[in-house]
Amino acid sequence: MSATGNASSPSGSPSKSSLPPGMVIGPDGKPCKICTAFRNWKPRTEKPKQQTQSSSQGTTTPGQKTAAMMAAFATGTGFASTSQQTTTPAPTPAPVQEQEQEYTRPANCPPDVEQLGSATWTFLHTTAAYYPDAPTMAHRVNMLSLLRALPVLYPCSTCATHLGEEMKTRPPDVSSRGALSRWLCEQHNAVNTRLGKERFECMVEKLDERWKDGPKDGSCD
Ligand SMILES: Cc1cc2nc3c(=O)[nH]c(=O)nc-3n(C[C@H](O)[C@H](O)[C@H](O)COP(=O)(O)OP(=O)(O)OC[C@H]3O[C@@H](n4cnc5c(N)ncnc54)[C@H](O)[C@@H]3O)c2cc1C
After folding, report:
1. Which ligand 1 atom is the nearest neighbour of the CA of 121?
2. What residues contact residue 150 under an 8 Å CB cut-off, 6+ apart?
3. The ligand 1 atom nearest the CA atom of 120
4. How many domains does the chain have?
5. Could you give the dihedral angle defined by the CA atoms of residues 22, 47, 55 and 85, in that order, rounded to the nearest 10 degrees?
6. Are residue 167 and residue 134 in the same domain, yes or no?
7. Is any ligand 1 atom within 6 A of the Cβ of residue 189?
8. Are residues 135 and 168 part of one domain?
9. Beta carbon of 39 within 6 Å of any ligand 1 atom
10. What is the per-residue pLDDT for 27?
């Protein structure tokens, strides 16, 4: 994820540090909704007491910043972005009291970057787990088309850009089920690393257990 934070701003535009925490800016310089986790997008409607107090002292809450930024875009003044994408630092976990006040999202809402990502990884890893050990030319061609389409079509543009860069340095290996599963695992690990998440051990046995066979204790049978 490209960074942000305290970079100085171009003339007349707010600094990156004035963006709401975790908000991702797309290639067009505007906030990218499908690139942003919902918890970092939705302005908080109920403010914790402490924040209400500080806002009366002249500071702004993340929700207020979001609203101000949206207003800037709505009026065409926009937030300038110096790189193709920008992400403000993820917020530190909120205290329990604050978390309890957070908005609960209805299940039928459009996906955010996390829901879309999780669903996509599920599809890709499962498809790889059921890919033939000895794929035909048709299998290989179709799998390559599917994977090469992602950097072009994946709705989270910043994710797609990262994936495209990764695929340039490490092209897809569609030569067998094991090779494809490991390649996908490494791609997923590249994202995990970027997001500060735990890496998965890319052994076919582990991947099969997670995406095809379930644990040996039979708990998923
Ligand atoms: C192509 C792509 C690019 C993305 N790029 C970004 C991005 O740039 N920024 C961003 O914020 N989000 C990105 N995402 C979304 C991100 O990867 C996660 O899907 C999202 O943060 C939700 O994470 P999660 O913790 O629910 O688990 P996920 O990362 O969605 O993983 C789902 C499950 O997969 C298993 N798993 C984890 N790692 C591996 C692995 N290496 N191999 C096999 N199985 C594994 C685990 O059991 C895990 O519970 C991207 C998603 C995709 C598909």
Report:
1. 53
2. 160, 163
3. 53
4. 2
5. 10
6. yes
7. yes
8. yes
9. no
10. 87
Do 127 and 198 fall into the same domain? yes
Range of the domain at 191: 113-213
Question: Among 121, 116, 117, 87, which residue's Cα sits nearest to residue 1?
Answer: 87
Give me the pLDDT at residue 221, please. Answer: 94
Provide mean pLDDT across the span 162-178: 98
Angle at 62 between CA 117 and CA 84, to 5 degrees: 50
Per residue in 195-206, pLDDT (tens digit) is 999 999 999 999
Angle between helices 177-195 and 113-129 (to 10 degrees): 160
Ligand 1 close to Cβ of residue 163 (< 6 A):
yes
User: How many angstroms separate the CA atoms of 19 and 79, rounded?
Assistant: 9
CA distance 189 to 191: 5
70's tokens: 């949206």
88 and 57 in a common domain: yes
Q: Are residues 163 and 95 in the same domain?
A: no
CB of residue 143 inside a 6 A radius of ligand 1? no
The answer, yes or no, to whether any atom of ligand 1 lies below 6 A from the CB of 159, is yes
- Same structural domain, 91 and 136: no
Q: What is the pLDDT of residue 105?
A: 82
Assess whether 117 and 187 both reside in one domain: yes
| Protein residue with least CA distance to atom 8, ligand 1 | 159
Q: Are 21 and 85 found together in one domain?
A: yes
